[in-house]
Fold this protein.
Amino acid sequence: MLVLAAVPTIQFHKLRRAAAPRFPVVHARSWDDALATIRARPVELAAVDPQLEGGPRPHEIERLRLLFPSLPLILYTALSPATAAVLLALGHSGINAVVFTRLDDHPARLREVLAHEEARSASRQLLDQLTAVLAPLPTELRWVVEEVLSAPAELQTVQQVAARARVDRRTFERWFARLGLPSPRHFLAAARVLYAHRLLQDPGFTIEDVAQRLGYAQTKTLQLHARAYLGLTAGEMRLTLEPRQALERIAQGFAPLRQTQASA
């Protein structure tokens, strides 16, 4: 899970050391850099300092909150009279995770906050939806499938996933068939559509941003998958479906396949 650190350099280095190896951290040295990074890379969590570009201001962080409401934000800043009013304003925006430099930013505390906020990320919420479906898989195979769902741009083919799980492709496919699941190819493609749908709930992402972030070579492939698994264009699914409804629609589409496998 990639963490964005829109904080001064000293805080970035502290955060990176504390987060390793579980969370890779990318540094944004300005708010424009932060915005571009969120749109282009698979950022799932962000640590931000209202003093990134000088005196403490809430506006840039409030903008991130408005554009990307599904992105958990951690305030990582100095405690001072100047920052107190800003922290209060951001708290009213629903940002409650705070770490103070030189007070409670020891590595254990940073790791604790990162782990807590990870549970609110888009990929973790998607995994929570699919936990019951994936539970019967062998442990190592389930871990790899979960890894793919967390970072779908990294492993995109069934062969790549099978190799990471140290099984051959046919074994991978047999496990899915035994559980009455669609083929791994269809399952992974449908999961990417669900992930795309979650990202598209944030007004800061364009369809092109989401396609790039999920590793689609062309935006039209995302559009084709959206139609295949949800019966909607990417723009339509953004406007008309909640995450629960999207999952239900995909599950209904796979139901005839499961029934056919069960009766075979």
Q: What stands out?
A: DSSP finds 14 helices and five strands in the chain. The CA atoms of residues 199 and 210 lie 7 Å apart. The chain has two domains: 2-118, 122-263. The two ends are 40 Å apart (CA to CA).
